[in-house]
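[#protein-structures] MJ: dropping RimJ/RimL family protein N-acetyltransferase here for a structure pass
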Amino acid sequence: MTPPAVTARDATEADAELLLSWRNDPRTREASRSTGVIALADHQRWLHGVLADRDRMLLVVEQDAAPVGTVRFDHEGAGEWEVSITLAPRSRGRGLSRIVLAEGERILAQRRGAVAVLAAVHPDNAASGALFERSGYREGAPAGNGFRRLRKTLG
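AK: finished. structure tokens for RimJ/RimL family protein N-acetyltransferase:
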């Protein structure tokens, strides 16, 4: 079976409400560092800052022109970037997470010459842990703030 094709595009300010709805989804919040509900005005300020920051990259990943997830990368220095991935609630359970992650990694390597990607995973989030491990991430640093730290070398 051929995996579903996806494409990534840069997020824009017009994506604010869509991204906020995914971020405020209860399952997304459970796995996040910040678990509270975010207000639209706060999210818009955050999004504006992310889009203006050269050390961050926020992509919306689409399948058949419909948004299915988002991948954000934050530069950590020395060619390393931390990844954050969110699937649209309606996209869960369809085998898309690994494809969405791989597309984000491809764009990151192409545009920014990234050497490695780091992932912070809540220990109770078995699905995310399995996603990153299946995608080639390995324990790379001591856990921090209650999160596992996984690392993948690109290339």
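MJ: nice. Residues 102 and 135 are 8 Å apart (CA to CA).
AK: one more thing. The first helix runs from residue 16 to 23.
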